[in-house]
Amino acid sequence: MLTGMKKTRNKKPASEKKPWAGRFREKTAEAVESFTESVSFDRRLWRYDIAGSIAHAGMLAKTGIITPKDAEKIITGLMEIAGEISQGKFKFSKGLEDIHMNIEAALIKKIGPAGGKLHTARSRNDQIALDLRLYLRSEVNGIITLINDFQKTLADAAEKNINAIMPGYTHLQKAQPVLLSHHLLAYAEMLQRDRQRFHDCLRRINILPLGSCAMAGTSLPTDRRFVAKLLKFDGVSANSIDAVSDRDFAIEFASNAAILMMHLSRLGEELVLWSTDEFCFIDIPDAFTTGSSIMPQKKNPDVAELIRGKTGGVYGSLMALLTIMKGLPLSYNRDMQEDKQPLFGSVDTVKSCLTVLCEMFPKINFNKDKMLEGASKSYTVATDVAEYLVGKGMPFREAHETTGRLVLYCIKKGKRLDELELKEMKGFSNLIGKDIYPHLSVEGSVRSRASEGGTSQKEVRKQIKRLRKGLGAPGAAGPRN
After folding, report:
1. Using one digit for the tens of pLDDT, what is the confidence trace for 36-54?
2. pTM > 0.85: yes or no
3. Which of 29, 90, 110, 388 has the fewest CB atoms within 10 Å around its CB?
4. Active site residue 56
Protein backbone atom coordinates (compact mmCIF):
# COMPACT_ATOMS: atom_id res chain seq x y z
CA MET A 1 0.00 0.00 0.00
CA LEU A 2 2.81 2.38 0.92
CA THR A 3 4.59 1.47 -2.30
CA GLY A 4 1.48 2.28 -4.29
CA MET A 5 1.10 5.62 -2.52
CA LYS A 6 4.73 6.45 -3.31
CA LYS A 7 4.18 5.76 -7.00
CA THR A 8 1.16 8.03 -7.01
CA ARG A 9 3.09 10.89 -5.42
CA ASN A 10 5.95 10.62 -7.96
CA LYS A 11 3.70 10.43 -10.94
CA LYS A 12 3.90 13.66 -12.93
CA PRO A 13 0.66 15.43 -13.80
CA ALA A 14 -0.24 15.40 -17.49
CA SER A 15 0.66 19.05 -17.86
CA GLU A 16 4.29 18.37 -16.92
CA LYS A 17 4.87 15.24 -18.99
CA LYS A 18 6.81 15.16 -22.24
CA PRO A 19 4.39 14.75 -25.15
CA TRP A 20 6.16 11.48 -26.03
CA ALA A 21 6.24 10.12 -22.42
CA GLY A 22 4.28 6.97 -23.26
CA ARG A 23 7.07 5.53 -25.40
CA PHE A 24 10.04 6.27 -23.10
CA ARG A 25 11.10 4.63 -19.82
CA GLU A 26 13.96 6.97 -18.93
CA LYS A 27 13.87 10.61 -17.96
CA THR A 28 15.49 12.99 -20.44
CA ALA A 29 19.03 13.86 -19.37
CA GLU A 30 19.47 17.41 -18.11
CA ALA A 31 22.24 17.95 -20.65
CA VAL A 32 19.85 16.97 -23.43
CA GLU A 33 17.09 19.23 -22.12
CA SER A 34 19.50 22.15 -22.06
CA PHE A 35 20.89 21.29 -25.49
CA THR A 36 17.57 20.79 -27.25
CA GLU A 37 15.44 23.53 -25.70
CA SER A 38 14.34 26.44 -27.88
CA VAL A 39 11.93 28.28 -25.60
CA SER A 40 14.72 30.68 -24.61
CA PHE A 41 14.44 32.22 -28.08
CA ASP A 42 11.20 30.97 -29.68
CA ARG A 43 9.13 32.43 -26.84
CA ARG A 44 8.83 35.55 -28.97
CA LEU A 45 6.37 33.54 -31.10
CA TRP A 46 3.87 33.21 -28.25
CA ARG A 47 1.20 35.53 -29.62
CA TYR A 48 1.26 33.72 -32.98
CA ASP A 49 1.20 30.31 -31.32
CA ILE A 50 -1.86 31.31 -29.32
CA ALA A 51 -3.60 32.86 -32.33
CA GLY A 52 -3.03 29.66 -34.30
CA SER A 53 -4.26 27.52 -31.41
CA ILE A 54 -7.44 29.57 -31.01
CA ALA A 55 -8.22 29.16 -34.72
CA HIS A 56 -7.40 25.44 -34.52
CA ALA A 57 -9.71 24.97 -31.54
CA GLY A 58 -12.50 26.74 -33.40
CA MET A 59 -12.03 24.38 -36.35
CA LEU A 60 -12.04 21.30 -34.12
CA ALA A 61 -15.37 22.40 -32.69
CA LYS A 62 -16.84 23.28 -36.08
CA THR A 63 -16.05 19.84 -37.48
CA GLY A 64 -17.30 18.04 -34.35
CA ILE A 65 -13.89 16.66 -33.41
CA ILE A 66 -14.26 18.32 -29.98
CA THR A 67 -17.35 19.78 -28.31
CA PRO A 68 -18.13 23.50 -28.42
CA LYS A 69 -17.88 23.50 -24.62
CA ASP A 70 -14.32 22.15 -24.72
CA ALA A 71 -13.42 24.65 -27.44
CA GLU A 72 -14.78 27.49 -25.30
CA LYS A 73 -12.69 26.31 -22.34
CA ILE A 74 -9.59 26.07 -24.52
CA ILE A 75 -10.03 29.49 -26.06
CA THR A 76 -10.73 31.15 -22.70
CA GLY A 77 -7.68 29.46 -21.22
CA LEU A 78 -5.46 30.51 -24.11
CA MET A 79 -6.58 34.12 -23.80
CA GLU A 80 -5.79 34.05 -20.07
CA ILE A 81 -2.31 32.66 -20.85
CA ALA A 82 -1.80 35.41 -23.41
CA GLY A 83 -2.59 37.97 -20.73
CA GLU A 84 -0.13 36.37 -18.33
CA ILE A 85 2.67 36.36 -20.92
CA SER A 86 2.05 39.96 -21.97
CA GLN A 87 2.16 41.04 -18.32
CA GLY A 88 5.38 39.11 -17.66
CA LYS A 89 3.69 36.73 -15.19
CA PHE A 90 4.12 33.53 -17.20
CA LYS A 91 6.90 31.15 -16.16
CA PHE A 92 8.61 29.47 -19.10
CA SER A 93 10.19 26.05 -18.52
CA LYS A 94 13.17 24.84 -20.53
CA GLY A 95 12.17 21.32 -19.55
CA LEU A 96 9.13 21.71 -21.80
CA GLU A 97 11.46 22.55 -24.69
CA ASP A 98 9.59 25.08 -26.77
CA ILE A 99 6.87 27.71 -26.82
CA HIS A 100 4.28 25.18 -28.03
CA MET A 101 4.67 22.77 -25.11
CA ASN A 102 4.97 25.56 -22.56
CA ILE A 103 1.62 26.98 -23.61
CA GLU A 104 -0.02 23.57 -23.92
CA ALA A 105 1.20 22.48 -20.48
CA ALA A 106 -0.06 25.72 -18.93
CA LEU A 107 -3.42 25.23 -20.66
CA ILE A 108 -3.85 21.68 -19.34
CA LYS A 109 -2.92 22.85 -15.85
CA LYS A 110 -5.42 25.69 -16.12
CA ILE A 111 -8.48 23.93 -17.62
CA GLY A 112 -7.81 20.23 -17.10
CA PRO A 113 -8.28 17.35 -19.60
CA ALA A 114 -9.97 19.60 -22.18
CA GLY A 115 -6.58 21.26 -22.72
CA GLY A 116 -5.15 17.93 -23.86
CA LYS A 117 -7.59 17.90 -26.78
CA LEU A 118 -6.08 21.01 -28.42
CA HIS A 119 -3.25 19.10 -30.07
CA THR A 120 -5.69 16.86 -31.93
CA ALA A 121 -5.04 16.85 -35.71
CA ARG A 122 -1.84 18.83 -35.55
CA SER A 123 1.85 18.35 -34.80
CA ARG A 124 4.57 20.66 -33.59
CA ASN A 125 5.93 20.28 -37.14
CA ASP A 126 3.04 22.12 -38.77
CA GLN A 127 2.50 24.27 -35.67
CA ILE A 128 5.95 25.90 -35.87
CA ALA A 129 5.60 26.35 -39.61
CA LEU A 130 2.36 28.23 -38.91
CA ASP A 131 3.89 30.34 -36.13
CA LEU A 132 6.84 31.38 -38.31
CA ARG A 133 4.57 32.35 -41.19
CA LEU A 134 2.32 34.41 -38.93
CA TYR A 135 5.38 36.04 -37.36
CA LEU A 136 7.04 36.86 -40.68
CA ARG A 137 3.80 38.13 -42.18
CA SER A 138 3.54 40.66 -39.37
CA GLU A 139 7.21 41.62 -39.44
CA VAL A 140 7.39 41.94 -43.23
CA ASN A 141 4.44 44.33 -43.21
CA GLY A 142 6.22 46.36 -40.53
CA ILE A 143 9.45 46.41 -42.55
CA ILE A 144 7.58 47.52 -45.66
CA THR A 145 6.17 50.43 -43.65
CA LEU A 146 9.67 51.39 -42.45
CA ILE A 147 11.03 51.25 -46.01
CA ASN A 148 8.15 53.44 -47.10
CA ASP A 149 8.96 55.91 -44.31
CA PHE A 150 12.62 56.09 -45.28
CA GLN A 151 11.73 56.59 -48.95
CA LYS A 152 9.60 59.54 -47.87
CA THR A 153 12.53 60.85 -45.83
CA LEU A 154 14.76 60.68 -48.92
CA ALA A 155 12.09 62.35 -51.06
CA ASP A 156 11.80 65.16 -48.52
CA ALA A 157 15.58 65.66 -48.50
CA ALA A 158 15.65 65.62 -52.30
CA GLU A 159 12.91 68.24 -52.54
CA LYS A 160 14.54 70.42 -49.90
CA ASN A 161 17.89 70.36 -51.74
CA ILE A 162 16.57 70.41 -55.30
CA ASN A 163 19.17 72.91 -56.54
CA ALA A 164 22.23 71.61 -54.67
CA ILE A 165 24.94 70.36 -57.05
CA MET A 166 27.55 67.78 -56.13
CA PRO A 167 30.16 65.75 -57.98
CA GLY A 168 28.93 62.41 -59.22
CA TYR A 169 31.47 59.61 -59.04
CA THR A 170 32.52 56.52 -60.94
CA HIS A 171 35.39 54.43 -59.55
CA LEU A 172 35.28 56.91 -56.63
CA GLN A 173 36.72 59.49 -59.02
CA LYS A 174 34.86 62.68 -59.86
CA ALA A 175 32.92 62.05 -63.04
CA GLN A 176 30.11 64.53 -63.79
CA PRO A 177 28.16 67.15 -61.86
CA VAL A 178 24.78 65.93 -60.61
CA LEU A 179 22.07 67.16 -58.31
CA LEU A 180 22.32 65.99 -54.70
CA SER A 181 18.61 65.22 -55.08
CA HIS A 182 19.34 62.90 -57.96
CA HIS A 183 21.94 61.06 -55.90
CA LEU A 184 19.58 60.62 -52.95
CA LEU A 185 16.79 59.39 -55.20
CA ALA A 186 19.08 56.62 -56.44
CA TYR A 187 18.77 55.13 -52.95
CA ALA A 188 15.01 55.63 -53.04
CA GLU A 189 14.96 53.51 -56.21
CA MET A 190 16.95 50.77 -54.50
CA LEU A 191 14.48 50.83 -51.63
CA GLN A 192 11.62 50.66 -54.12
CA ARG A 193 12.94 47.36 -55.41
CA ASP A 194 13.38 46.17 -51.81
CA ARG A 195 9.77 47.06 -51.06
CA GLN A 196 8.60 45.18 -54.14
CA ARG A 197 10.59 42.11 -53.15
CA PHE A 198 9.11 42.06 -49.65
CA HIS A 199 5.59 42.48 -51.04
CA ASP A 200 6.20 39.58 -53.39
CA CYS A 201 7.63 37.50 -50.54
CA LEU A 202 4.34 37.91 -48.66
CA ARG A 203 2.58 35.88 -51.35
CA ARG A 204 4.60 32.81 -50.44
CA ILE A 205 4.59 33.48 -46.70
CA ASN A 206 0.81 33.74 -46.55
CA ILE A 207 0.03 30.04 -47.16
CA LEU A 208 -1.42 27.96 -44.31
CA PRO A 209 0.62 24.84 -43.36
CA LEU A 210 -1.50 23.86 -40.32
CA GLY A 211 -3.39 20.62 -40.83
CA SER A 212 -0.42 18.90 -42.44
CA CYS A 213 0.28 17.40 -38.99
CA ALA A 214 3.59 15.56 -38.63
CA MET A 215 3.96 15.13 -42.41
CA ALA A 216 1.11 12.96 -43.78
CA GLY A 217 -2.04 14.87 -42.89
CA THR A 218 -4.75 13.34 -40.69
CA SER A 219 -7.61 10.84 -40.86
CA LEU A 220 -9.82 13.20 -38.84
CA PRO A 221 -12.42 15.37 -40.65
CA THR A 222 -10.57 18.70 -40.41
CA ASP A 223 -11.39 21.89 -42.35
CA ARG A 224 -8.12 23.59 -43.25
CA ARG A 225 -9.74 26.30 -45.34
CA PHE A 226 -11.83 27.37 -42.37
CA VAL A 227 -8.60 27.88 -40.38
CA ALA A 228 -7.04 29.73 -43.32
CA LYS A 229 -10.01 32.10 -43.40
CA LEU A 230 -9.84 32.73 -39.65
CA LEU A 231 -6.12 33.51 -39.81
CA LYS A 232 -6.41 35.49 -43.08
CA PHE A 233 -4.21 33.25 -45.19
CA ASP A 234 -4.56 33.37 -48.98
CA GLY A 235 -4.57 29.59 -49.34
CA VAL A 236 -3.52 26.26 -47.86
CA SER A 237 -0.40 24.23 -48.58
CA ALA A 238 -0.89 21.65 -51.33
CA ASN A 239 1.44 18.94 -50.04
CA SER A 240 1.71 17.98 -46.38
CA ILE A 241 5.29 16.68 -46.68
CA ASP A 242 6.46 19.92 -48.25
CA ALA A 243 4.46 22.04 -45.81
CA VAL A 244 6.31 20.84 -42.70
CA SER A 245 9.75 20.75 -44.32
CA ASP A 246 9.60 24.06 -46.21
CA ARG A 247 11.62 27.04 -45.11
CA ASP A 248 11.86 28.67 -48.53
CA PHE A 249 9.73 31.53 -47.30
CA ALA A 250 12.20 32.22 -44.48
CA ILE A 251 15.19 31.98 -46.82
CA GLU A 252 13.50 34.31 -49.28
CA PHE A 253 12.90 36.80 -46.49
CA ALA A 254 16.55 36.51 -45.40
CA SER A 255 17.67 37.08 -49.00
CA ASN A 256 15.50 40.17 -49.30
CA ALA A 257 16.83 41.42 -45.97
CA ALA A 258 20.41 40.89 -47.14
CA ILE A 259 19.81 42.89 -50.33
CA LEU A 260 18.13 45.67 -48.35
CA MET A 261 21.04 45.79 -45.91
CA MET A 262 23.49 45.94 -48.81
CA HIS A 263 21.71 49.09 -49.98
CA LEU A 264 21.71 50.60 -46.49
CA SER A 265 25.39 49.70 -46.12
CA ARG A 266 26.25 51.53 -49.34
CA LEU A 267 24.46 54.59 -48.02
CA GLY A 268 26.24 54.19 -44.69
CA GLU A 269 29.60 54.09 -46.48
CA GLU A 270 28.81 57.31 -48.33
CA LEU A 271 27.74 59.04 -45.11
CA VAL A 272 31.05 57.99 -43.55
CA LEU A 273 33.02 59.35 -46.51
CA TRP A 274 30.99 62.54 -46.81
CA SER A 275 31.50 63.34 -43.13
CA THR A 276 35.31 63.28 -43.39
CA ASP A 277 37.40 66.46 -43.63
CA GLU A 278 38.53 65.25 -47.04
CA PHE A 279 34.96 65.44 -48.37
CA CYS A 280 33.22 67.68 -45.83
CA PHE A 281 29.92 67.26 -47.67
CA ILE A 282 27.78 66.67 -44.58
CA ASP A 283 27.63 67.35 -40.88
CA ILE A 284 25.94 64.67 -38.79
CA PRO A 285 24.36 66.08 -35.59
CA ASP A 286 26.06 65.37 -32.28
CA ALA A 287 23.05 63.33 -31.17
CA PHE A 288 23.85 60.73 -33.84
CA THR A 289 27.62 60.58 -33.44
CA THR A 290 30.05 59.50 -30.73
CA GLY A 291 33.44 60.65 -29.52
CA SER A 292 36.76 59.04 -28.72
CA SER A 293 37.86 57.78 -25.32
CA ILE A 294 41.33 59.27 -25.89
CA MET A 295 41.13 61.89 -28.70
CA PRO A 296 39.07 64.87 -27.53
CA GLN A 297 38.55 66.33 -31.00
CA LYS A 298 36.89 63.27 -32.56
CA LYS A 299 33.31 63.13 -33.81
CA ASN A 300 32.68 59.69 -35.23
CA PRO A 301 29.87 58.60 -37.61
CA ASP A 302 29.20 55.45 -35.59
CA VAL A 303 25.57 55.01 -36.69
CA ALA A 304 26.57 54.84 -40.36
CA GLU A 305 29.50 52.56 -39.51
CA LEU A 306 27.32 50.19 -37.50
CA ILE A 307 24.77 49.95 -40.30
CA ARG A 308 27.67 48.97 -42.55
CA GLY A 309 28.92 46.48 -39.96
CA LYS A 310 25.56 44.93 -39.10
CA THR A 311 25.09 44.02 -42.76
CA GLY A 312 27.53 41.15 -42.29
CA GLY A 313 25.31 39.57 -39.66
CA VAL A 314 22.32 39.60 -41.99
CA TYR A 315 24.42 38.03 -44.75
CA GLY A 316 25.48 35.39 -42.22
CA SER A 317 21.85 34.66 -41.33
CA LEU A 318 21.05 33.97 -44.97
CA MET A 319 24.00 31.61 -45.29
CA ALA A 320 23.05 29.91 -42.01
CA LEU A 321 19.51 29.20 -43.24
CA LEU A 322 20.74 27.92 -46.60
CA THR A 323 23.28 25.70 -44.91
CA ILE A 324 20.78 24.30 -42.39
CA MET A 325 18.42 23.27 -45.19
CA LYS A 326 20.82 22.13 -47.89
CA GLY A 327 21.23 18.50 -46.78
CA LEU A 328 17.91 17.67 -45.15
CA PRO A 329 15.92 14.68 -46.41
CA LEU A 330 12.15 15.02 -46.37
CA SER A 331 10.35 15.86 -44.25
CA TYR A 332 10.88 17.64 -40.92
CA ASN A 333 14.25 17.36 -39.17
CA ARG A 334 15.28 18.81 -35.82
CA ASP A 335 18.00 20.83 -37.57
CA MET A 336 15.19 23.17 -38.59
CA GLN A 337 14.91 24.38 -35.00
CA GLU A 338 18.08 26.36 -35.77
CA ASP A 339 16.26 28.56 -38.29
CA LYS A 340 14.79 30.89 -35.71
CA GLN A 341 17.75 32.77 -34.29
CA PRO A 342 19.15 33.79 -37.71
CA LEU A 343 15.66 34.79 -38.79
CA PHE A 344 14.93 36.77 -35.63
CA GLY A 345 18.34 38.44 -35.86
CA SER A 346 17.73 39.58 -39.43
CA VAL A 347 14.32 41.00 -38.54
CA ASP A 348 15.70 42.90 -35.57
CA THR A 349 18.68 44.29 -37.49
CA VAL A 350 16.69 45.47 -40.48
CA LYS A 351 14.11 47.19 -38.31
CA SER A 352 16.68 48.92 -36.09
CA CYS A 353 18.71 50.19 -39.06
CA LEU A 354 15.69 51.60 -40.88
CA THR A 355 14.34 53.15 -37.68
CA VAL A 356 17.58 54.98 -36.84
CA LEU A 357 18.02 56.18 -40.43
CA CYS A 358 14.49 57.59 -40.49
CA GLU A 359 15.33 59.57 -37.36
CA MET A 360 18.87 60.63 -38.25
CA PHE A 361 18.69 61.46 -41.94
CA PRO A 362 16.38 64.52 -41.77
CA LYS A 363 18.81 66.11 -39.29
CA ILE A 364 21.91 65.78 -41.50
CA ASN A 365 23.22 69.14 -42.73
CA PHE A 366 24.44 69.15 -46.34
CA ASN A 367 27.36 71.51 -47.03
CA LYS A 368 26.13 72.70 -50.41
CA ASP A 369 28.99 75.14 -51.04
CA LYS A 370 31.55 72.41 -50.47
CA MET A 371 29.65 70.06 -52.77
CA LEU A 372 29.46 72.71 -55.49
CA GLU A 373 33.17 73.39 -55.11
CA GLY A 374 33.88 69.68 -55.49
CA ALA A 375 31.68 69.45 -58.58
CA SER A 376 33.55 72.34 -60.20
CA LYS A 377 36.92 70.57 -60.02
CA SER A 378 38.51 67.68 -61.93
CA TYR A 379 37.06 68.69 -65.31
CA THR A 380 33.65 67.18 -64.57
CA VAL A 381 32.12 69.03 -67.57
CA ALA A 382 34.44 67.32 -70.08
CA THR A 383 31.61 65.08 -71.30
CA ASP A 384 29.57 68.21 -71.96
CA VAL A 385 32.35 69.49 -74.25
CA ALA A 386 32.37 66.19 -76.13
CA GLU A 387 28.58 66.28 -76.53
CA TYR A 388 28.80 69.92 -77.66
CA LEU A 389 31.16 68.83 -80.46
CA VAL A 390 28.82 65.96 -81.36
CA GLY A 391 26.06 68.56 -81.67
CA LYS A 392 28.29 70.39 -84.17
CA GLY A 393 28.54 67.27 -86.31
CA MET A 394 31.75 65.67 -85.04
CA PRO A 395 31.71 61.87 -84.58
CA PHE A 396 31.63 60.97 -80.88
CA ARG A 397 34.96 59.08 -80.87
CA GLU A 398 36.70 62.07 -82.46
CA ALA A 399 34.92 64.42 -80.04
CA HIS A 400 36.05 62.24 -77.13
CA GLU A 401 39.69 62.36 -78.26
CA THR A 402 39.56 66.09 -78.94
CA THR A 403 38.12 66.79 -75.49
CA GLY A 404 40.74 64.54 -73.92
CA ARG A 405 43.53 66.57 -75.54
CA LEU A 406 41.80 69.76 -74.38
CA VAL A 407 41.72 68.47 -70.78
CA LEU A 408 45.40 67.49 -70.97
CA TYR A 409 46.19 71.02 -72.14
CA CYS A 410 44.29 72.46 -69.18
CA ILE A 411 46.18 70.22 -66.76
CA LYS A 412 49.51 71.43 -68.14
CA LYS A 413 48.39 75.06 -67.97
CA GLY A 414 46.78 74.70 -64.53
CA LYS A 415 43.46 76.02 -65.81
CA ARG A 416 39.81 74.94 -65.65
CA LEU A 417 37.95 74.43 -68.93
CA ASP A 418 35.83 77.55 -68.34
CA GLU A 419 39.03 79.60 -67.86
CA LEU A 420 40.28 78.96 -71.40
CA GLU A 421 40.00 81.70 -74.02
CA LEU A 422 38.09 80.95 -77.19
CA LYS A 423 41.22 81.08 -79.35
CA GLU A 424 42.85 78.44 -77.11
CA MET A 425 39.92 76.11 -77.58
CA LYS A 426 39.72 76.74 -81.34
CA GLY A 427 43.25 75.40 -81.51
CA PHE A 428 41.71 72.00 -80.89
CA SER A 429 38.69 72.35 -83.20
CA ASN A 430 37.29 75.09 -85.42
CA LEU A 431 33.82 73.81 -84.55
CA ILE A 432 34.12 75.44 -81.13
CA GLY A 433 32.41 78.82 -80.86
CA LYS A 434 31.33 81.25 -78.15
CA ASP A 435 28.24 79.17 -77.56
CA ILE A 436 30.39 76.57 -75.80
CA TYR A 437 30.69 78.59 -72.60
CA PRO A 438 27.24 77.74 -71.16
CA HIS A 439 28.32 74.09 -71.43
CA LEU A 440 31.39 74.71 -69.27
CA SER A 441 29.54 75.49 -66.03
CA VAL A 442 28.35 72.80 -63.66
CA GLU A 443 24.97 74.52 -63.50
CA GLY A 444 24.65 74.37 -67.29
CA SER A 445 25.81 70.76 -67.32
CA VAL A 446 23.15 69.71 -64.81
CA ARG A 447 20.44 71.71 -66.58
CA SER A 448 21.26 70.05 -69.91
CA ARG A 449 20.89 66.49 -68.57
CA ALA A 450 17.18 66.40 -69.41
CA SER A 451 17.00 62.83 -70.74
CA GLU A 452 14.41 60.67 -68.98
CA GLY A 453 15.75 59.74 -65.54
CA GLY A 454 18.56 62.30 -65.87
CA THR A 455 19.89 64.79 -63.34
CA SER A 456 18.24 68.00 -64.55
CA GLN A 457 15.96 69.76 -62.08
CA LYS A 458 13.01 69.10 -64.36
CA GLU A 459 13.66 65.36 -64.47
CA VAL A 460 14.44 65.10 -60.76
CA ARG A 461 11.15 66.81 -59.93
CA LYS A 462 9.42 64.16 -62.05
CA GLN A 463 11.28 61.46 -60.13
CA ILE A 464 10.18 62.93 -56.79
CA LYS A 465 6.59 63.16 -57.97
CA ARG A 466 6.61 59.58 -59.21
CA LEU A 467 8.17 58.36 -55.97
CA ARG A 468 5.62 60.15 -53.80
CA LYS A 469 2.79 58.76 -55.91
CA GLY A 470 4.08 55.23 -55.32
CA LEU A 471 4.58 55.62 -51.56
CA GLY A 472 2.07 53.53 -49.66
CA ALA A 473 1.00 51.57 -52.72
CA PRO A 474 1.80 47.83 -52.54
CA GLY A 475 5.23 47.74 -54.14
CA ALA A 476 4.20 50.23 -56.81
CA ALA A 477 6.85 52.39 -58.43
CA GLY A 478 4.27 54.71 -59.92
CA PRO A 479 3.89 55.66 -63.56
CA ARG A 480 6.97 56.66 -65.53
CA ASN A 481 5.36 59.78 -66.92
Report:
1. 899 999 999 999 999 999 9
2. yes
3. 29
4. no
